[in-house]
Design a protein that fits this description.
Layout (H helix, E strand, L loop, with lengths): L7 E5 L4 H12 L3 E6 L2 H11 L3 E5 L5 H10 L7 E4 L14 H29 L2 E6 L13 H20 L5 E6 L26 H13 L4 E2 L3 H10 L4 H20 L1
Parallel strand pairs: 1-2, 1-4, 2-3, 4-5, 5-6, 6-7
Helix pairs in contact: 1-6, 4-5
Length: about 260
């Protein structure tokens, strides 16, 4: 993974739906991939599939010490693009989600993303080249998320941090992009891979998200929202009173909660 013409992309959350789809897209476009995830079995399957174009790292980046060890391990590899894709969510009433689960979301969705972004952003500034894609969610644009209070809050942080960095990075030859998928057919809590009926209008597949992400990044966009309906909803949302937003979100999450319990 060395050489002036070789482009290296580091993807966290590589064993999840969108993460795996991103690996396929970057592989097709001849990038070398560093894949980080916790599921060792899936990582080994990815290694068998992509061979010497991928290096796998089974790391639990919820833990600060694991991140430090990982960064030391890859210190001599030039990362041209960082994709912060690792993330978790919990669904349920606030009082029923344990403090430990809330802290896990903060550690992975915020702390790990912040640590990796800051580390590689500084390195990219030094060599005046690089890119960062932070994967958030359209949830981050909402005023709040009843039944997923902690998750929505973490995504609001990611959105705010990334938008601020987009402005700061202007003129520094570093490409910053925020990827905000809407509902995506993955194994994420409250979701599944079955897309039926009206869901086909707004639920995207991991492959659709990954392809849109790549196209938008290469074309220099700072914000990528996969799916036409999701884009429309993003613009319409700013005109909806916040109390109505919250009621609508709660209805959606109640339905997801029921589906999760089936």
């Amino acid at each position: 993974m060395k050489g002036k013409d070789i482009m290296n992309v580091l993807i966290t959350g590589a064993t999840g739906g969108i993460g795996q789809a991103l690996i396929e897209v970057f592989y097709r476009n001849r990038w070398n991939i560093l894949a980080v995830g916790r599921n060792k079995k899936i990582l080994e399957e990815l290694k068998l599939k992509y061979g010497d174009k991928i290096e796998i790292y089974s790391r639990d980046i919820e833990k600060e010490e694991e991140i430090k060890k990982f960064l030391q391990e890859i210190e001599n590899i030039e990362i041209n693009l960082l994709i912060n894709g690792a993330g978790i969510g919990e669904i349920g009433e606030f009082e029923n989600i344990s403090l430990i689960e809330e802290q896990r979301m903060i550690n992975l969705n915020i702390q790990a993303l912040l640590t990796l972004t800051k580390h590689f952003y500084k390195k990219m500034l030094e060599r005046e080249e690089g890119g960062i894609i932070n994967i958030s969610s359209t949830a981050g644009f909402q005023v709040g998320g009843p039944l997923m209070c902690g998750y929505y809050a973490t995504k609001a942080y990611v959105n705010s941090l990334t938008f601020g960095l987009i402005e700061e990075s202007k003129g520094k030859n570093i490409k910053i992009m925020l990827l905000c998928p809407g509902p995506t057919a993955t194994n994420f809590k409250g979701m599944n891979r079955e897309i039926e009926g009206a869901k086909k209008l707004y639920v995207t597949t991991p492959e659709e998200v990954a392809n849109q992400c790549y196209r938008d990044y290469i074309s220099g966009k700072n914000l990528s929202i996969p799916g036409k309906v999701n884009k429309i909803l993003y613009y319409l949302n700013r005109f909806i009173p916040w109390k109505i937003q919250l009621k609508n979100i709660e209805k959606i999450q109640r339905k997801k909660q029921k589906e999760t319990l089936k």
